[in-house]
Amino acid sequence: MKIHSTTTMIATSTVILASTAFRRGLSFTPTTTTLRRMASTSLSSTTSPPTTPPPKPKTRTRRILSGVQPTGSLHLGNYLGAIRQWVDFQNKETEPFEDENGFIVNTENYFCVVDLHAITMPHDPKELGESTLSSAALYLAAGIDPEKSRVFIQSHVAPHAELCWLLNCATPMNWLERMIQYKDKSAKAESSDSSVGVGLFTYPVLMAADILLYQAERVPVGEDQRQHLELARDITRRWNDLYCKGGAFKKRCKKAGIPSYPTFTEPEAMILSKGDGARVMSLSDGSSKMSKSDADDNSRINVLDPPKVIRQKVKKCKTDAAVGITWDDPERPEATNLLNIYLAVQPSDGSGKTRADIEEEVKDMTWGDFKPVLAEAIVEHLEPIQKRYKEVREDEEYLMGVLGDGADSANEIASKTLNAARVAMGFVARV
Ligand code: TYM
């Protein structure tokens, strides 16, 4: 009987804590310590006079989300600007910590292969599937750990497309007309006489949907995505203003049994500093970014390029006529870019060269001296990733298992947010 009532008390406390957290839009997962603490409070309350209960642990979940388009092969820009940043974050910053409001913050990482984005430009259906799986395998090979992060394919989580439609209808056209990537890509497509699909225009809204579905607080990306992140923030504010206010909204939420808080969390971009890989430039033009859409494959180093190809590409890359290689000279963008790459691929185990070491090493070098040194550093950095990639890509069962688990977990969260968005907009709930 006593055991039964204690259990009931623990269950009741858990429900109270969980529902308080839920009302605040926070998740609550009682840890073993919490349960033990609640159990000892409950037991002692039957034998000794009432004492002040220990402070209730408050927890909240912080989500991180990012993705890469599976368009062709992933290059050094994608790796240094995005994927490596994800891995570092996953390994260094996902331990629970206490925030300024006294909440214990648990971090969840979601990394998706954004295949719905890959069809916004003409694509080859024969290649989409392989590029998608290859990208996912590369995330894992680069160090994304399925024990610590969820990896999934965007098109396996249907709410992305549906939320995109809802957001499309709440986004002014002129916000999208300002998007630099749209202007660049559509100008390129028009100059080569290809038609531009509506999807290319609304692509930043799909990206906003990707982020908002998970209430992601932080989004690690390269510098070129800054404007899209700003748009996602603008859409969040507009949506919350348009649909999440007033008594009618509260009533709809009550009827649907969900908390009447704004539908979406405003996301923040996480962008490295320039020299650290936020903007890796093309090998054929130090003033434009390394890009998958550049027709010239020699303009980029793909993460899966064999060593021989890497050496050839570095040998051919654009340089200048000056002797001695110097950093941050505005007249020498190629020198700065290649030095940034050299620094970024140094081993991270403490044995790597620092910027000062490199400046000393290269100050009197010719390009003929430096290029082979740079090529070897890139090859050495990428070789273990390529080896691991081969293992992961050949183990289809493992890869599909990771992606299946990731999609299940993503679907659970995304469906909840989509439901809240539908309620906010006033759709009839399906019974
Ligand atoms: P995408 O596929 O063009 O690029 C993927 C990631 O790589 C970064 N990146 C670079 N970083 C440094 N130097 C470069 N030269 C370079 N080129 C690309 C990008 O900034 C990006 O972080 N719309 C996005 C994908 C996306 C997404 C999302 C990202 C869709 N939904 C939600 C974050 C969250 C894109 O096309 O990235």
Short description:
With 431 residues, this protein is α/β, with parallel strands linked by helices. It contains 15 helices and six strands. Helix content is 54%, strand content 8%.
Written overview of the protein:
- Helices cover 54% and strands 8% of the residues.
- It has 431 residues and is of the alpha/beta class.
- It has 3 domains: 46 residues; 237 residues, HUPs (Rossmann fold), CATH 3.40.50.620; 97 residues, Tyrosyl-Transfer RNA Synthetase (Orthogonal Bundle), CATH 1.10.240.
- Strands 1, 2, 3 and 4 form a 4-stranded mixed β-sheet that branches.
- The N terminus is likely disordered.
- It binds tryptophanyl-5'AMP.
- The site of tryptophanyl-5'AMP (TYM) has 26 residues, from strand 1, helix 3 and helix 8.
